[in-house]
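Quick note —
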Amino acid sequence: MLEINKIKNNANNIVLHLKKRGIDVSDKLSSVIDLDNARIANQQKLDALLAESNQIAQKIGAMAKDKKFNEIGPLKERASEIKLLSKELIEEGKKFEEKIKNTLVEIPNIPHNSVPDGKTEKDNFIESQWGDILDSDKLLPHWELAEKYNIIDFKKGAEITGSGFPLYKGMGAQLQRGLINFFLDYNSSAGYQEYIPPYFVNEQSAFNTGQLPDKEGMMYHITNDNLYVIPTAEVPITNIFNNTKFQINELPIKCTAYSPCFRREAGSYGKEVRGLNRLHQFDKVEIVQICEPQESYNTLDLMVSHVSELLKKLNLTFRIVKLCAGDLGFTSALTYDFEVYAPGQKKWLEVSSVSNFETYQSNRLNLKYVSQNKKNVLCHTLNGSALALPRIVVAILEQNQTDKGIIMPEPLLKYVNFDKIN
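Predicted structure written out below.
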């Protein structure tokens, strides 16, 4: 959520930057400014009344001490009147705050200056590419390889639950477990503290990280308990630091967590969603950082490098894509997508998004640190996948297929009990 002071001081600049997203927020910003000015005027009236109330209380005390009881009556009447007026102003203030909040949540984050112009994913900018692209019509897609080697049963998963819920078995299940442990160990060795978070969050937690009110349709909702099943570990992990104030020497905070992830909008038909390409349930290892504002873009670069090295260790062909303004997530200021190549399908598949949210999440979380000049300053939050498993499995199966089986990447050998799937 954007900060009101930034809006007041930089409204024209914010309007200009958000036009890169293809939206005009000038009316919304004007509304926020007018509502906040009205809120301030309302608060000033309340403060004046409360000050008068304190003065009256002191006068009543002094008169009672001097036994001037006949003069206390009018003061008590005014005190009662102030009490009623104060209550009305408090309620009016709450209404202003609610209206401001309802308007602010409709305004997305401001794109960073480096975000490319563009409307759709076709306008995204390819930053770099690593590895060779296999080009052969003889290469099989992963769903055929999974059936051939009996490691994933898509039909049985759909029979048990529905489309988008695969059943891993044998070497397929061991590969999943091995990848999770490999990713967690790699992240921990880079200084990320490991967590096991809850897999359900309440409405406030979903709001704090920007899933609500933007992504209701993406999440599974347990109506009776008003809980949401997490779409990513980012949500509970970032919420660990709700209403937290760090000392500057405690930053940065680095967290990693494995969790199953659940998303309703996985899609339904066609090659785009076939096999592991798009699922309702999948496993993912997440990294989250919290840092000072002036360090956040250096931190973003370090996180991008971290994920790059992880993919290189698996020897997977991948590319890094900077998202254009029109494809940027609602809460993000800058996002890099990592895409692996699936030669059996001749297509690129996203396996990670690494994003800087600047203060957009921390403003909702009330997540701050004490700066060197002793001011309370909003932190910057960042997160990324390191990594999402389904499409990593796709890349391993399709890129490493041979006539004698699927060759396992060397770093995985100590995490699985086999060197190839056959």
